[in-house]
Amino acid sequence: MVFSKLWLNYKKLDDTRKRILISCEHSLKESAAFEELQTAMKAMLPEAIVLWKSEVFDDDSYLIVLGIHPELDREEYTIAASLNITEICGGSEAGLLYGVFEFLKRTALAGGFIGFNAQAKPSQPLRMLDHWDNADGSIERGYSGKSFFFKDGELLVNERTVMYARLMASVGINGVVINNVNVRGSAKRLLTKDYADSLEELGELFGRYGIKLFICPDFAAPISVGGLDSADPLDERVINWWKECCASLFSRIPNLGGFLVKADSEGQPGPFAYGRDHADGANMLARAVAPFGGLVIWRCFVYNCAQDWRDLKTDRARSGYDNFMPLDGRFDDNVILQVKNGPMDFQVREPVHPLFGAMKHTKLMAEFQLAQEYTGQQKHVCWLVPMIKDILGFHTKHDMQDDRVSRTVCGVAAVANTGDDFCWTGSELAAANLYGYGRLLFNEDTDLDELAEEWAQLTFGDDEQVISAVSEILKGSHKAYEDYTVPLGLGWMCKPNHHYGPDPWGYEFDRWGTYNRADRNGIGVDRSPAGTGYSAQYAPEWAEVYGDIDRCPDDLLLFFHRVPYTHKLRGGKTVIQHIYDAHFEGYEQAEHFAALWASLKGRVDERTFKNVSERFEEQLNCAKEWRDIINTFFHRLSGIDDKQGRKIYN
Ligand code: GCV
């Protein structure tokens, strides 16, 4: 099995010491923290021997003391490092492991042992990755090969899953959902004895790295695997079926964290079929997992996906709030509602979901998508971490002490961008999303310039030119992608179904509630109070700003308002001129990034160079399509020329 170690590919240190001494209680010798340290030290100091609790401490030794200090929080750590001795303490084995990874990271970046003190605990309690892996080995919206969790219906636990757990723990992930929220095929049987042994084994492996295992159950399992004729959450037979199912599941898999559920959404079964609501459905499952400390994470991605485009009143953006806000306060304590970052569906630009901060009596989690479904499918570089940071830092203006999104949630999840290809993420550069996501959730104040450089150095080595080029590419990539694709928050100008490449009217006459309403007079969707009323779902301050065409931020203008092409943005340009400029400039940026990457030939290894170069070639072809199709589309509709007279095809 050949796969990259990504940022855990430790390089040799500039140090000649002959002995690494690891001192700890006997019980910690079996811990992942100890093992990680051992593995890393062997790679960093290949000539040294690694010993446990040795007495021989001299000038030729480096001593690392590991301990558990219960007065620290469970996932907290402290590090006191010097040139000869380092002491790492955790509030539990998980905290200790995070401390060890932090020590290793700083040592790797410095190229040798250094003196520093650190104390940290995660900003977010729940830091999850959701895999959309199907039991047959395919991945919904997967751009990195096949699943490494499933093959032909079988659940895999092997070297690759061990490496996965190490990588995830190293950036602080503490919960992983292994299967698709659309539960298909054999995945419906995950609840049965068929998967008992492999789930137990995977659960144990994850547990060793501080990661809870989650699965997506089929809401209709009482029918699909239980043989009942109903999945009604208020039916006693159904309730008992789930209770028994969970009792046996949790007794077999002690490290099971619970369930993630997509119900009544895009064809998935749910409580609506029985005239029940989402609180009925979620609470029924929550009561079945509660005796085992389990959680039910219930998704709010519920909307009418059989809409008529002629219907101008129904607004998909409203649906999450409309469905769930009236249920605030009705969910059990162990239910968490998982809310996508925006009201539509992981577009390159959307407003923050209005449920954050609004549901004051319900636990919420934010959901992002590292899999770049709408952001270039891991062929285009699009570093999403700055966007995630902005959204988590967004002030909801709801009446609360700290109104930032990050403080209104008890966790964050992201759809994973991994698969079984050599580099895990299709493009080697897409791993920066995985790394940055985890690090940001652990420390939401992380400096993004440093983060980009740190990832580049850990991944590609110490060459300054490589680090600076790669971090420049990452940092500018989201803006460039937004510029050459969909303007001003409009969304949905991609090709239907697979969502790659431009098609300005691809979703215009469809059933998904995804319309831009472009015509010769103007563009955008009126979601102000005079339109669909969506803007009123925000706290009053934002409702006023978003609802007012003159105060709405430029980058969301067309999400909230319908305007003529000659409408002036707050920055002074007309909408149409902005569209032309952004598309030409975005493409030029992509060209600049490709050239920067090309300048690294010979400075990164040949395979990596080829992997990224091929994707840049594709990115440029596709970006040119976006530029020319979108510019031409709007030129034809508006009849207004580009002031700079650049080439637009007619
Ligand atoms: C897993 C979008 C994607 C679907 C995905 C869905 C969801 O609609 O295109 O593939 O289904 O989101 O988040 O449930």
Compose a concise summary of this entry.
One of its GO terms (cellular component) is extracellular region. By secondary structure, this protein is of the alpha/beta class.
Give the N-terminus to C-terminus distance in angstroms: 52 Å
The helix/strand class is alpha/beta
Strand order of the largest sheet: 7-10-11-12-13-14-15-16
Compute the gyration radius: what is it?
26 Å
Query: Percent of residues in helical segments?
Result: 25-40%
Please name the CATH architecture of the largest domain.
Alpha-Beta Barrel
Structurally, the number of domains stands at 3
Q: Identify the bound ligands.
A: 4-O-methyl-alpha-D-glucopyranuronic acid
Strand content: 5-15%
| CATH homologous superfamily descriptor of the largest domain | Glycosidases
Descriptors:
alpha/beta, Chitobiase, domain 2, Alpha-d-glucuronidase, C-terminal Domain, 3 domains, six-stranded mixed beta sheet, 34% helix, glycosidase, Agu67A, Glyco_hydro_67_C, EC 3.2.1.139
Notes on the protein architecture:
- It is a single chain.
- With 650 residues, this protein is α/β, with parallel strands linked by helices.
- 34% of the residues lie in helices and 12% in strands.
- The chain has 17 helices and 16 strands.
- The strands form 3 sheets. It has an 8-stranded parallel β-barrel. Strands 2-1-3-5-4-6 form a 6-stranded mixed beta sheet, covered by helices on one side.
- A hairpin with a 2-residue loop joins strand 8 (150-151) and strand 9.
- The longest helix is centred in the C-terminal third of the chain and has 33 residues, at 606-638.
- It comes from Ruminococcus albus 8.
- GO terms for molecular function: alpha-glucuronidase activity; xylan alpha-1,2-glucuronosidase activity.
- One of its GO terms (biological process) is xylan catabolic process.
